[in-house]
Amino acid sequence: MAESTRPISTDGSIQESQRICLTGDDGSTCIPITSNNVEIVASQDSGINSKARGSNKVKIQPVAKYDWEHKYYYGRLIAVSNSFLAYAIRGANNHAMIRVLSLDFSERSLLKGFTGAVTDLAFAHLDSSLLGCVDEAGNLVVWQLTLTGSKILDQIVVHIQRPEDTPLNSHRRLIWCPFIMDESDENQDDISQTLALLHEDMAEVWDLEVLRANNSSWPVDATELKEGLITVKGHTQRVSEGALSPDGTVLATASHDGYIKFWQIYIEGGQDMPRCLHELRPHGGRPLSCLLFCDNHKRQDPEVPFWRFLITGADQNQELKMWCTVSWTCLQTI
Question: Where do the Enhancer of mRNA-decapping protein 4 WD40 repeat region domain residues begin and end (predicted)?
Answer without folding.
Answer: 54-334
